[in-house]
Write a structure and sequence with these properties.
Chain lengths: 648, 336
């Protein structure tokens, strides 16, 4: 800490009273963010009012464009600018002298550093994870409210608008603000370390991508308080329901997705460039850990697919706010166009939410089985196969939509074929575990939970791929069960595994193993009791996204609701463990899991610049049990404390 | 591999398979079957489930055996055998799933083609969806219109679906067939009912506030009963007596799926109670006949307290039908 402040002092002129106030108000930070947010919001407001007055409309009569431009577009830009995410680029673009890179925005020495624009990939990783866990809690709370309403048929606690808002915001938060960015956070922390790199390729872009996220999340949550209530058309936001039959909350969804999507695209570009150009000497593609492979393939998906959802949301919003008719059939719009564009992103998004988890699984399973990953190359190739096939299956979400009927069989074939590379991965993990020396630490328990649950989700996915079965069950609770087996039993289990696995590396402390195991068992049992019966009610005829249902489903729904509350309680154990361990847990050794990948060869937490010298990679990262095998040769790293002492 | 693990794997796999099969057989997974299409879907369903149970049992067997057998002692810091792969095994678990999913794909394509193939003497029905009601028109039978779908048994029925506002989806679980209704696009759905009975029609695509209650019934009857019903409908709507023609209009439109009306025997509580119409008209300060007529053609002009606007769609009935319906509602609500 002393090092960085001393550095800043050297650059700045002698401090005066006047200078201190100036810096306080004009320097990057929360103060400047506050007034710049207000200023930009006012500017957006003025812009719309002046343009409307100029165009001959009543300037204030329609609040929708005003809210859109001032609150959802320009205020967030003001916030980002105020916080300082653009400072360097603005100085550079204006030809002013840029602040010399004094690394004052690198590393975290106190909790306050997590609330600044920080360019350190490790700090950003933690910022991502804490933020996403907060949105995970909000999303989970919304699900609890939903289950309370669904415990009995009839309406008990909410009106329909609110209920439809609950499941719409629940899904949007879980997808756009938890699963996708939580993986980005874990990868942000681990990937540069695993590559033997000092940081990501574009640290400032990395910081910007993070700060876009809370904006997106806040928009989705705030939609509950705008007049008319939250957007209530599901996270899929199908037109024309969402584009012309919704209260103002709908544009909060449209815009929230844009901010989250922009964040995703920037992060993905950053990963691609980092992985392609910043691998340590000797780190060939075939020596990269599978987590790196997974994020490489995921980033390809994100970069290619995400612009499509951006397009779909812009069109939908234009229909809503400006009365265009992209999806308005009465004026020549094409309703199914929305679904095609939306799913062209949102099906690959399913893999965006799964491939990084596959990467985490490969790390955890290999390390805790003390064996090399079985069939490494095929594992990497099957990731690539999923990327390619993933773009050719989007219309399997539309088998009953009324699209061209010839499209169904080809889409069914590609959908079913995706089961093959996915199966390869499952069987290879099983083979990795076979004859290993299994250590049942919490990350490994979650990995085993993932293997068993994801198989169920995958198999119900094969059933859904078969068109005639899909016709019967689409838009029923069977789908709700399937998506949760894939996204919770699949993705969230791997996120939990990853969080426990890298917890010692991120915080420098060990988590409580007993609480971790308790958390696993509560999650595993609660999850199955909650979601397995949903297959049944769905097949029998209960549609999804309903606030009320036929009395014959009352018994099972009561059971599901009770189970879901117990399931929800498991998250409290997780939180308690994370918070108390972060504060008071036993100090973690640098390599508690005896793993071979590079992030475990440096101190916990890693030094500010990761490696004293760039490591020389000499072999595969999974050579467990091979006598004398080495992944890389490192100069012994200094711990954070000795490094700081040296600088001072 | 030695013989011990193989026997143990077989054992665990069989137990897991038996349990999964029991879950599949003893839980009531599918509602009763009432169409030829559902029959074929069920066969495909059980074929796929059998394959899934097999795969699931294999995975569970390997997983459980490994967990029980390969647990490391707490102080055991040694590594497992450095096995990097096995080309033969990898080829096997690429090829077998490929064959299995291909089989499912071919089977599905056949079922799909047969489900879509029309039978002889097809009955055409136009289905119109709107927030939040269904209406069914029989174009081959004097354009009889009804809010409850009636179908003759064992006859190929082709539904032509359209929507007036947003996307809805037509589903009868017992028929197994489902199709979205899309504004601007005509979609169709083929059903061959094969069991007499009454089944729920459910909207499965989120369509707004009343989505959960957008339901009606499908009644499958004999061809004779169906013909008789068509005739009675044609007669009733033309009757000069409003208590006959108005009652028919009420039944043929989806009024009863949301409103209570003692005279028609409906008890739904989504919309206001129609037995209290005189009282509502008084609150609204309008003559009863005008009030009822306005509430049908322009429901948002006045909404009773406690009921949101924009839930009931406007109904544009032919003038004669509207008059009959208004008279019928005046008569029945005054009685009630």
């Amino acid at each position: 800490m002393t090092a960085t402040t001393a550095d800043q002092g050297a650059h700045a002129p002698a401090p005066t009273q006047h200078g201190a106030v100036r810096r306080y108000l004009l320097g990057p930070g929360w103060i400047r963010a506050a007034w710049m947010t207000a200023l930009f919001a006012a500017f957006g407001f003025g812009l719309v009012v002046v343009l409307r007055w100029w165009g001959g409309w009543h300037p204030l009569l329609d609040w929708q464009p005003i809210i859109l431009v001032s609150l959802l577009v320009s205020a967030p830009l003001g916030f980002l600018a105020g916080l300082g995410t653009f400072d360097y680029w603005v100085y550079y673009a204006l030809g002013k002298p840029t602040r010399a890179e004094d690394h004052s925005t690198h590393g975290a020495h106190s909790w306050k550093d997590y609330f600044r624009v920080n360019t350190d990939h490790k700090v950003i990783g933690v910022q991502y994870l804490v933020t996403t866990v907060i949105f995970f809690l909000i999303g989970g709370l919304l699900a609890m409210l939903m289950r309370a309403e669904l415990a009995k048929p009839g309406m008990q606690f909410f009106d329909t608008q609110t209920f439809n808002g609950l499941f719409s915001v629940h899904a949007s938060l879980m997808i756009f603000l938890f699963v996708i960015p939580a993986f980005a956070g874990l990868a942000n922390f681990a990937v540069p370390l695993m590559l033997g790199a000092g940081d990501m390729a574009f640290p400032r872009l990395n910081a910007l991508s993070f700060w876009l996220l809370p904006i997106a999340g806040l928009m989705m949550v705030l939609s509950f308080v705008v007049p008319g209530g939250a957007f209530a058309c599901g996270w899929t936001g199908y037109a024309p329901l969402c584009s012309s039959h919704q209260p103002m909350g709908a544009i909060f969804f449209n815009q929230g997705v844009q901010w989250a999507g922009a964040s995703s695209i920037m992060t993905a570009l950053n990963f691609l460039v980092t992985i392609i150009t910043m691998r340590a000497p000797g780190m060939t593609f075939w020596r990269m850990p599978l987590l790196v492979w997974a994020n490489f393939t995921t980033s390809l998906l994100v970069v290619i697919a995400t612009p499509f959802i951006a397009g779909s949301q812009f069109f939908s919003m234009f229909d809503h706010v400006m009365h265009t008719s992209f999806f308005d059939a009465n004026n020549g719009g094409y309703v199914l166009g929305y679904q095609h564009i939306f799913w062209f992103y949102s099906h690959p998004a399913v893999y965006i939410m799964m491939l990084p988890g596959f990467g985490i699984m490969s790390e955890v399973i290999s390390v805790f089985s003390r064996k090399p990953i079985f069939g490494y190359r095929l594992m990497a190739l099957s990731l690539m196969a999923i990327v390619v096939l993933g773009f050719s299956v989007w219309a399997h979400h539309m088998f009953v939509s009324g699209m061209a009927s010839w499209l169904r069989v080809p889409m069914m074939i590609t959908t079913l074929l995706i089961a093959v590379p996915t199966g390869i991965k499952i069987f290879s993990w099983l083979a990795t575990i076979w004859e290993g020396k299994l250590h049942f630490n919490t990350p490994f328990l979650f990995a085993l939970g993932f293997l068993s649950m994801f198989v169920i989700g995958g198999l119900s996915g094969v059933m859904l791929g078969a068109v005639p079965i899909d016709i019967h069950v689409s838009d029923t609770y069977f789908i709700v069960a399937h998506i949760h087996y894939v996204l919770f039993g699949g993705s969230v289990f791997t996120i939990y595994a990853g969080m426990y696995y890298w917890f010692p590396k991120m915080t420098g402390r060990m988590y409580n193993e007993r609480l971790g195991k308790l958390h696993f068992w509560m999650t595993f049992v609660g999850f199955n009791l909650t979601f397995f019966p949903m297959h049944l009610v769905g097949m029998e005829g209960m549609p999804r996204r309903v606030a009320d249902y036929a009395p014959k489903f009352a018994g099972l729904n009561m059971f599901i609701s009770i189970a879901s509350f117990a399931f929800g309680a498991s998250v409290l154990v997780f939180l308690y463990n994370m918070i108390t361990s972060w504060r008071r847990g036993p100090i973690a050794p640098s390599n508690p899991w005896r793993a071979m990948t590079l992030e475990w060869q440096v101190s916990s937490p890693p030094p500010i610049f990761n490696f004293t010298e760039i490591p020389q990679v000499v072999g595969s990262p999974y050579e467990y049990g091979v006598p004398g095998a080495q992944h890389a040769i490192l100069t012994p790293s200094k711990t954070r404390e000795t490094e700081e002492l040296a600088v001072t | 591999m030695r013989r011990g693990p193989i026997l143990a794997l077989l054992g665990i796999g069989t137990i897991a398979g038996v349990i999964a099969t029991a879950v599949a057989i003893f839980l009531p997974w599918l509602p009763p079957e009432a169409s030829d299409e559902r029959g074929r879907i069920d066969v495909l369903f059980w074929f796929t489930v059998a394959i899934c149970i097999m795969i699931f049992a294999i995975v569970v067997a390997v997983l459980l055996y490994a967990v029980l057998r390969f647990r490391a002692a707490p102080d055991d810091d040694s590594d497992g055998p450095p096995i990097h792969g096995h080309t033969g095994l990898e080829i096997v678990w690429t090829l077998i799933p490929t064959v299995l999913v291909t089989a499912i794909g071919i089977f599905s394509a056949i079922v799909l083609a047969r489900d879509d193939a029309l039978g002889k003497n097809v009955l055409n029905i136009n289905v119109t969806a709107q927030q939040f009601a269904w209406s069914f028109e029989y174009p081959d039978n004097g354009k009889v219109t009804t809010g409850t779908l009636r179908l003759p048994v064992n006859r190929s029925v082709l539904l032509h679906l359209t929507s007036k506002d947003v996307i809805h989806s037509f589903w009868v679980p017992e028929f197994g067939q489902k199709q979205d209704t899309v504004p601007g696009i005509d979609t169709s759905l083929h059903i061959t009912p094969n069991r007499i009975g009454t089944y729920p029609v459910i909207c499965t695509e989120l369509c707004g506030l009343g989505h959960a209650v957008m339901r009606t019934q499908a009644i499958v009857m004999t061809q004779t009963a169906f013909d008789k019903w068509i005739q009675s409908q044609t007669k009733a709507t033309a009757s000069p007596n409003p208590s006959v023609s108005g009652a028919a209009v009420f039944k043929n439109n989806p009024c009863g799926s949301c409103h209570t009306l003692a005279a028609a025997g409906t008890t739904a509580k989504v919309g206001p109670d129609l037995d209290k119409l005189p009282q509502y008209a008084q609150t609204a300060g309008k003559p009863l006949a005008d009030f009822i007529s306005e509430s049908i053609t322009d429901p948002n002009a006045y909404t009773e307290k406690g009921y949101p606007k924009n839930v009931m769609p406007p109904f544009n009935l032919p003038q004669a039908q509207l008059d009959a319906l208004v008279q019928y509602l005046i008569q029945s609500s005054k009685k009630g």
